[in-house]
Every structure is written in structure tokens, then in C-alpha cells.
Inverse folding.
């Protein structure tokens, strides 16, 4: 693979902008032969003629037009790299954001919309996954920040509790169960849906079953909370889900929330990010997420406090 130099890319863009090798050399504070050499080396590397002479003017060829487009993108990335490393601000350049599927379903679009409106120079790279997977990615420095449920992160991570989400047994109103109140022993023989272990939701159900000294029942599993929610709405089975993911259907009455003699403990929604000086800009993202969550049904905000690194998710 042939390598291109930043000097070659700058020469290409300067000539395209000013229309001549002479003007480009003046902008770059080098001699015109130096600019000519850089362009010639770039043309040899890509195997195409990038400019045609028209008197004193340099006119882009069709291949040159393509090269300028890519060169502009490449130079922009270098500028982002410089700004990110020089300022330590994760809100300049690419922000690697993780989200549990629950958070993605209820409020991630609004968080990203507000983030991009306030910080137009940020490009968000989103990873949606199980909270346990997100914890692994955070601990491996593959994410800058993640919104997750019941996290377990290492000591180099900050943990900011945001809210708690009610969890309940939900089912279609078109196919209601005989009983409106469930206890662990009532699950046997029912068509149950769940995300597979290991996952916070599965562990929540297993914990609840233990309160009745009942083993966890057999589940039909799916790795997507969104698809399980659709299956519940279709009457395929019932599932223990955060009520917020089907808030509209509960309000319309198309989905039933079953009572429980022993309620589930709520899922704790947290923001997690690195305990490092350059992570200071992420506080703004956390505040934004809290603002978005404050009006959501079946969500209770947690008081803001100093970030913690205990990894205990409630």
C-alpha cells in the first residue's frame, strides 16, 4: 500500500482552492517547485493525473475532483485528532457512546439530537448492546461513555446514577392471563420471554424467583429487548420488561401490567465513563441525559451526586 503525506494532501487542496501552483505555494510558504513535486508524488501514488494546465491556472481533472473530496475528509479528521488530543475534549471529534437497548429505545435519539445541536463538531459513534457487554467495552477503553443498567465497571470508571426504571410482567391485553397478580410459582407452564443470560433483566427475574424459593423457569429467549417488546404486544408471551419501553401501549391499554405480590427491584440506569481529566466534558452529556429522562413515564430520577466508582448498580 502506497503512503500519502500530509504535505501532499495540503498541496492538493491548496491548488484546488486557489487555482494555481503559484498561489498554493504562497499560502503554504514553500516554493512553487516544492508544490509541484508534492503533487507529482501524489499523482504517482494514486496512479492518476489530478490537474491539467490551462495557462497559469491549474484545473482539476475528474480524478482530481474525487481526490479533493477524500483529501478534504482526511484533513478534517487530522484536525479533529489534533483538537481532541490538544484539548482533551471528547466533545470535539468522535464520541464513542454506548447504550443499553432499554435506554436506546426510550431516550437515546433525543440525547443524540440535543448533543449534536449543542456541540456541532462532535460525531457520535453509537454502540447498542447488553449492559454487561458495554461494561467490558468501557473497561477496555473502547467507549468514551455508556448509558447502562445495573453496571459493574472497574475502579478507573466514574459511575453517575441517573434514574431507576420500573420493571414488571407485561403481556398483551388481547391474551390476558387468568390471574391479574403473579408470584414466582405462577410462572410454571406460561409462555415466557426473556433476554438470555448473562443480562441484568435475566438476573432480575432469577432474583425475584428466589424470593419465592422457586427455580427460574424455562424461557423463550431473544437477545433484543425491542423484539421481545413486539412479541409481547403480539400476544406471543409475557415478559419481565422495563415498563418504560412499552409506556405508550400501557397508556392505550393494549398491554397489561400484571400485579406482583413481591415487586421487582427497579433497574438502575447509570452513566459510566473514564476517571480521567480529559473526561471532564462528558459531564455535559450526563446532564443532558438526565434532562431527557426527567419527564419519561415509569422512570424516577436519582439525585445528582459526585460520581462513584463502586460498580454497584442497586
Amino acid at each position: 500500500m502506497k503512503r500519502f503525506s500530509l504535505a501532499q494532501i495540503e498541496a492538493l487542496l491548496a491548488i484546488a482552492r486557489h487555482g494555481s501552483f503559484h498561489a498554493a505555494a504562497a499560502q503554504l510558504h514553500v516554493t512553487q517547485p516544492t508544490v509541484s513535486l508534492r503533487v507529482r508524488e501524489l499523482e504517482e501514488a494514486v496512479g492518476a493525473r489530478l490537474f491539467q494546465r490551462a495557462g497559469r491556472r491549474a484545473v482539476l481533472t475528474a480524478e482530481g475532483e474525487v481526490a479533493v473530496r477524500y483529501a478534504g475528509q482526511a484533513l478534517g479528521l487530522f484536525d479533529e485528532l489534533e483538537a481532541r488530543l490538544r484539548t482533551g475534549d471528547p466533545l470535539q471529534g468522535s464520541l464513542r457512546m454506548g447504550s443499553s437497548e432499554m435506554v436506546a429505545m426510550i431516550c437515546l435519539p433525543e440525547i443524540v439530537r440535543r448533543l449534536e445541536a449543542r456541540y456541532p463538531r462532535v460525531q457520535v459513534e453509537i454502540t447498542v448492546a447488553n449492559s454487561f457487554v458495554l461494561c467490558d467495552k468501557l473497561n477496555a477503553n473502547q467507549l468514551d461513555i455508556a448509558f447502562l443498567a445495573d453496571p459493574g465497571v472497574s475502579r478507573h470508571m466514574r459511575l453517575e446514577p441517573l434514574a431507576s426504571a420500573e420493571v414488571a410482567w407485561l403481556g398483551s391485553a388481547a391474551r390476558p392471563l387468568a390471574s391479574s397478580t403473579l408470584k414466582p410459582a405462577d410462572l410454571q407452564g406460561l409462555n415466557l420471554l426473556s433476554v438470555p443470560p448473562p443480562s441484568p433483566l435475566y438476573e432480575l427475574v432469577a432474583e425475584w424467583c428466589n424470593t419465592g424459593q422457586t427455580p427460574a423457569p424455562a424461557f423463550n429467549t431473544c437477545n433484543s429487548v425491542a423484539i421481545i417488546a413486539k412479541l409481547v404486544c403480539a400476544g406471543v408471551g409475557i415478559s419481565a420488561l422495563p415498563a418504560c419501553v412499552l409506556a405508550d401501549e400501557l397508556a392505550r391499554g393494549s398491554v397489561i401490567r400484571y400485579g406482583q405480590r413481591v415487586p421487582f427491584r427497579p433497574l438502575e440506569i447509570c452513566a459510566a465513563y473514564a476517571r480521567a481529566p480529559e473526561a471532564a466534558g462528558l459531564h455535559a452529556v450526563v446532564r443532558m441525559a438526565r434532562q431527557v429522562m426527567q419527564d419519561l413515564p415509569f422512570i424516577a430520577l436519582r439525585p445528582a451526586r459526585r460520581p462513584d466508582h463502586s460498580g454497584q448498580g442497586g
Summary: The domain at 6-86 is CATH 1.10.10.10 (Arc Repressor Mutant, subunit A). Residues 172 and 233 are 5 Å apart (CA to CA). The chain has three domains: 6-86, 94-165+267-301, 167-260.
